[in-house]
Specification:
About 40% of the residues lie in helices and about 15% in strands. The protein is built from 14 helices and 11 strands. The strands form 2 sheets. Strands 1-9-8-6-5-4-3-2 form an 8-stranded parallel sheet. Strands 7-11-10 form a 3-stranded antiparallel sheet, with no helix packed on it. Helix 2 packs parallel to helix 3 and helix 9 packs across helix 14. The structure holds flavin mononucleotide. Flavin mononucleotide (FMN) binds next to strand 7, strand 9 and helix 10.
């Protein structure tokens, strides 16, 4: 599956394992995907600088192939509820059910982006990818001057054009099928729910840099379809969530594999930013009082102790069950084996089409 894009990155297959900050992706997954000839990614958005350094060291101890580190860029998010008390009271009931101390309103740490960007120059990954905003052109130029390739996430044509103008090397076109946080940073997020099939060719026509398709791609059929739309590569998240190396609880994996195409929705309930996940008890309760949701990242920090306890206990009713719309096509196998399977499947689809 070597292409101009894979040669440019020094990888064998145009398959990127999506960064999944929070537990989805692990250094073992990143290394396995990169060693198998894809591009593994570290989801670094929530990692302390020490934890990031440890993950980078672990990936490098397992493979010398290229990998990406992913960050959250800076962009405005919707204003949240002015009074945090009702949300704290709601979350307190879930803490009680989990048997943990009542929630407290966390203080807001300073934005980590500048120190994270400085760390990129130290760690020197092959690629820095980012979502939820455009980086200032000066930051992109600094990364490029250090020999690091950059990829920004767009959910609309206008976002793709803004990213191209900032100097990125490639654009990840994230369709509305995608699991996890929406990369949207321009339009109201409700207007930026464009399916992968509609989004990818419009972005391909609008920009001159390579476009990576993301959202709902689970197997060789999806990879060849993305190729047909003009994508240079695919980025897949949900497909890797059920692999051996994934950091999520077994109960979450089982829920993904048993889920229906209608199981997910885009919600602000867990973090204050729109993200696609499977409906569960917490999500449904918060959606019913959506005006009580706090802004990002406050809602995210406030729900973190609940989500962490739920993850330990395998309580899928209180966990953010991020998932794309095609989770039932997922498979249980090692991440490297999945890369090999995807390559074989894509080849079989191409042969069938010929
Ligand atoms: C559990 C999970 C966590 C995610 N975390 C991130 C992240 O930290 N950074 C990012 O750029 N994208 C993140 N994404 C989105 C992916 O990059 C990608 O857009 C998405 O997985 C593609 O859709 P799919 O899940 O249907 O493959 C996440 C996705 C999932 C499922």
């Amino acid at each position: 599956m070597a292409t101009e894009f894979t040669r440019w990155l020094g990888i064998d297959h145009p398959i990127i394992q999506a960064p999944m900050a929070g537990a989805g992706s692990t250094p073992a997954m990143t290394a396995a995907v990169s060693a198998a000839g894809g591009l593994g990614s570290i989801g670094a958005a929530y990692l302390s600088l020490d934890a990031l350094a440890a993950e980078v060291a672990e990936v490098r101890s397992r493979t010398d192939r290229p990998f990406a580190i992913n960050l959250f860029a800076r962009s405005e998010s919707a204003p949240g509820a002015a009074d945090p008390a009702p949300m704290l009271a709601l979350i307190a009931r879930h803490h009680e059910a989990l048997g943990i101390e009542p929630p407290v309103l966390p203080s807001m740490p300073p934005d980590p982006l500048d120190s994270q960007l400085a760390a990129m120059l130290v760690h020197q990954p092959a690629v820095v990818s980012f979502t939820m905003g455009a980086l200032p052109a000066a930051d992109v130029a600094r990364l490029k001057a250090a020999g690091i390739k950059t990829m920004g996430t767009a959910t609309t044509v206008a976002e793709a054009k803004a990213l191209e103008a900032s100097g990125v090397d490639a654009i990840i076109a994230q369709g509305s099928e995608a699991g996890g946080h929406r990369g949207t940073f321009f339009a109201p997020w409700q207007a930026a729910l464009i399916g992968t099939m509609a989004l990818v060719p419009q972005i391909v026509d609008a920009v001159s840099v390579p476009v990576v398709a993301a959202g709902g791609i689970m197997d060789g059929r999806g990879i060849v379809a993305a190729e047909a739309l003009g994508a240079a590569a695919v980025q897949m998240g949900t497909a890797f969530l059920t692999t051996t190396e994934s950091g999520i609880h077994e109960a979450y994996k089982a829920a993904l594999l048993a889920s229906a195409d209608t199981a997910t929705t885009v919600t602000l309930a867990f973090s204050g930013r729109p993200a696609r996940g499977m409906r569960n008890r917490f999500l449904t309760e918060v959606e019913a009082v959506a005006d009580q949701i706090l802004s990002f990242p406050l809602q995210n920090s406030t729900t973190r102790p609940m989500r962490s306890a739920a993850a330990r206990q395998g309580d899928i009713e209180r966990l953010s069950l991020w998932s794309g719309q095609a989770a039932s096509l997922g498979r249980r196998m090692g991440s490297a084996e999945l890369v090999r399977r995807l390559v074989d499947e894509a080849e079989a689809v191409r042969a069938r089409l010929r």
